[in-house]
Amino acid sequence: MSELKLEFVGKQVKDMYGTFIGKVIGIVTDIDGSIESVGVDCGSAGLKHLAYEQLLVQGDYVIYIPRWRLDAQKLLRQKNLTLMRIKALKDIVAENDSMKDDAELIYIKYEKRLNDLEKDEKYVHEKLHERLNELDKESKDVKAVLFDAKLQHRSNEITEDMYQQISIHTNELMEHINLEKSEINNVKTRLTQQTLENNAISTVSDVESTVREMPATETALQQQQGSVSRQSITPPQIVGKNVTSSAEEKPVETHADDVDDKETSWLNQVIPNNSEIST
User: Fold this and answer.
1) What pLDDT, on a 0 to 100 scale, did the predictor assign at position 108?
2) Predicted local distance difference test score (pLDDT) of residue 90
3) Cβ atoms within 10 A of the Cβ of 87, count?
4) Could you say which of 95, 186, 195, 256 would form a disulfide bridge with 53 (CB–CB 3.0 to 4.6 Å)?
5) Which residues contact 244 (CB under 8 A, 6 or more apart)?
6) Residue 223's domain spans which residues?
7) SS3 of 60, please?
8) CA gap 85, 177 in Å, rounded
9) Does 101 lie in the same domain as 212?
10) Residue 258: its pLDDT value, please?
């Protein structure tokens, strides 16, 4: 087995928001030796196979990237580029009317491409809506656990220390849920803004830079309260009680065959190279 495959086995898996998923117990490969999926022991939830392109290795952990996030990022980039080219065609015709016939043929091509992307956008919106419903249910479940713990504490069934431990863990879960919900809502807003009518067109580099620049830690989010923030995809930072830095941290490795260099650069921003997730 290659060194690359061995990097996965035995590592704990967490999602981008710090929630523990399970432990890697094996790799499923194709006949040519390429990795198809990674088997993760999720305890009572059983063995789950996670898509290889949705995983990256960061130190002692494997980080799981949700499919909705990859699909949304890809759609935003493709739609933005299509809108930019349609606008460029209109500008060319406005400057030189003799090129109208040539531009019209190309315009039809990009108009069809935009219609196809709008169908993809509808699918992504449905997935985002489903995920928001799932998060709302998880939020209610977490709050129910915390409320019951408070009730037990008031009735002297559990100690103060026990109640504080429950409170800490449930608050961490709520923090993870709220971060993901906030990011999904930002994505939905961004997709809605990308239309020809409102001319919400920016360069691909601008999209990538806003993705990297938007802070996602709890402190940064608190600092933004009361101000009008720009709507963009917020790259979440792994959330945990203890996050320590390490100068010897290995660089992030990504393995998506269908993702280009710019998307790889974006994925590398998910986990800063100088941070390490603590258990």
Assistant:
1) 86
2) 84
3) 13
4) 256
5) 275, 276, 278
6) 67-238
7) coil
8) 37
9) yes
10) 46
Partner residues linked to 15 by β-bridges: 64
CB 221 within 8 A of CB 235: no
Closest among 164, 180, 51, 177 to 128, alpha carbons compared = 180
In the block, tokens 């608190």 appear at 222
| Residue 171 lies inside a defined structural domain of this protein | yes
Residue that has been written with the tokens 């800490």 in this structure: 168
Name the nearest CA neighbour of 166 among 147, 179, 180: 147
Which parts of the chain register pLDDT below 50? 1, 200-279
Task: Examine residue 279 and state whether it is found in any structural domain, yes or no.
Answer: no
**∠ Cα 43 48 53 (to 5°):** 135
In a domain, 185, yes or no: yes
**Token code pair at residue 138:** 């998880």
The C-alpha atoms of residue 241 and residue 278 are separated, in whole angstroms, by 8
* φ, ψ dihedrals at 77, nearest 5°: -70, -45
> Most distant CA pair in the chain: distance in Å?
85
pTM over 0.70: no
- pLDDT digits over 86-124, tens only? 888 888 888 877 777 777 888 888 888 988 998 899 999
Query: Is residue 36 within 8 Å of residue 99, measured between CB atoms?
Result: no
Identify the residue whose tokens are 């069934």: 157
Q: How far is 66 from 70, CA to CA, in rounded Å?
A: 7
- Number of independent structural domains in the chain: 2
**How far apart are alpha carbons 175 and 177 in whole angstroms?**
5
Any residues with CB less than 8 A from the CB of 13 and at least 6 apart, and which?
20, 21, 22, 23, 24, 40, 50, 55, 61, 62, 63, 64
Helix (H, G, I), strand (E, B) or coil at 142: helix
The span from the CA of 37 to the CA of 53, in Å, is 8
One domain, residues 94 and 186 = yes
DSSP 8-class letter at 54:
G
